[in-house]
Structure prediction request, 370 residues.
Amino acid sequence: MVQDVLGQTIIWKKKNRTITMKILYIEDEINTKISDIVNMFSKYLGESIKGELNDLLSTYGGKARIPKQAIQEIVEKSGIVHIEYRFPDALKEIIQSHKKYDLIIVDRNLSEEEYDESEVLELNISAPQFKHEDYTGKEGGGREGDYIFHYLFGEEGKNIIRKFYFLSAYPFSPLADDSENFSEAESLAHYLDLKLLGENNFVPKDDKAIKRFIEKIINKVESINLRHENLIYLNILEKCIEQKASNRFWTLLQREKSPEFIEDNLSLARKIYENIYDNSKLNQLAGNPQKLTDYLENKGNNWQYKLQSGAVITSSLRALHNICNNYGAHERFEKNKELGLYQPTLETIQAVVCMLKDIILWFDKVINEE
Prediction:
């Protein structure tokens, strides 16, 4: 089973699955927050990306001069963290893709980057209605982040609470209840009164609070960690085959430890290795999985050097073909069960996933070889 950030078990359903796996960070002053970005998302950025971000500081000689788009593009390479720094762009991303994020971190004041009210109205949001003056305080400053929360609560209800966090330079109490400074209808007071929002949803912008936030929340979201650990395989399948193959492997990874999905997982594994066999370069050698394995194992013509396969790959290919062909289709699965044959277990699924990983790495090397 996979758990959410509150430790609650998520049951994956066969139909209408939503693939969630990323972090959305909305901050309008990212050019002055490079060190915060590196610290908060260090686990997911990798040394290369962190190096590129630090190089920006040297190249431009001052934080204020660093192009925000350059920071956004570098962080995007992580495949885990997505940054938006303009309110209308952030809102558009939220509208189109909020369900793919398992963690949403928002700076409440997004007024640093100028925008026109018409940019928001063009997004045609029916509710809640956006009026610029409602989210501009009487004492200055903006509360665009509040509108993002209002919208998300309308879309996801209470579910948004477990994955939504405000970053703030102010203490929780005066920050949260802005009813005197802002329109009562547009403040967060009613969410607080109903205990739909609490102190845990507000993270002060100080080193100790951010460190606790990193340790307890950012680094602990299981689905994000799962994607991070398997990003290389998911990217290969997307790049070398298609997004559907990558999605299949992601679903298999999410349900790997769920006994109720053993049959479905073997069916997914069968479709993934069939996607691999269908690649044109491999198809030139053999028209089906059995023939390809035979070709690789043929001891003539320097067999052990054929496509740099060797025993690890040929054994994995043959085992996958036999297991998934016999148990990855419902009719055969039930027939084997009726015959009293040994049934696949969660350990079988674990072995299948490990073999697929070796095959995916080998596949990437073979088809990208000149």
